[in-house]
Design goal:
mainly alpha, globular, 336 residues, 18 helices
Amino acid sequence: KLFIAFIFVMSGMKLKTSEMKHALKCWKAALFGIVSIVFVTPCISLALVRIRFAVPELAIGFAIFFAQATSLSSGQILTAEAKGTVSLALLLTVVTNIISVFTMPIFVSSSLEYYLAKNYDLSNLTESVNSGQIQVDLLPIILELLFTILLPLGIGKLLCLVAVVRAFAENFGNSMKMIAAFFLAAIVWMKVSSSADDLNSLDLLSIFACFATGFLVHVVYLLFNYSTMTYVIDSEQSDKRAIVIVSSQKTLPVAITVLDILPPEAIGSRGLAIVPIIICQFVQIVMDAYVAAVWASIPHELDSTKENIAHVEDIRADNEASSLSGAATQGEITRT
């Protein structure tokens, strides 16, 4: 939890009011990104918890991970790599992680209630589950997230009011990213080390199922966000790239925090539940790194030109269809 708090302190220190104002200019794209991250994409967690995995704990691990807001650092890094609007990515990261403090527990609570109802016979669960005595209380989860996310974020922003701290954050921004990445790796390492025995009991087929599920869900996220930004939301190419990448990612540290908050007797094996969380984090980074690399090789002008060409081809096809229809109608009139 201390590492997670430090990550949000550094996020608050990197938060610049001027960049946030610039990001707010593309409010339509930002609004869609917020709705997609906080309300739309978490809905898939309610479906994943209903999948009958050979290891039941995998289902609740998936549900917890995909109920989260966007990633804390990888989304911004990959947006910069893709030549997207980094300020917009930062805005979505901060705002969605704040909103999800209050919305995400609802998705997790609904998933956990179904999980308990369908897996009451797990050997790790106590008789209290069988009798329905375990209740998912949202208040402790929200309070824990307030102290883990909002408070450190606010502290980081307040620290930047001091000139020395603000200068440090501006001059050592890359170093702070590296430190955040180290803390993130340390969180994963500690969780994996503490769950080594449980991980050794996991069969190869279950691991493959985790990779396949993470891959398919992320493909759905990318297609949904890209299609909406291309055909529904009118935005700049750099804004579209930021929205697609950031709105398709989920945060690992907060997912692990939620997993620790939930009653241990209700989860089963935490070590098994954390496996899909770690695998999905790895899958989304690898996939989005490829997407960012492809976009980085395509200049914004060329990308826009391709869309214009496609639009022109659609118009040309419509005109040809209209011409053929008109010719057929004229032929009928002539014969008549």
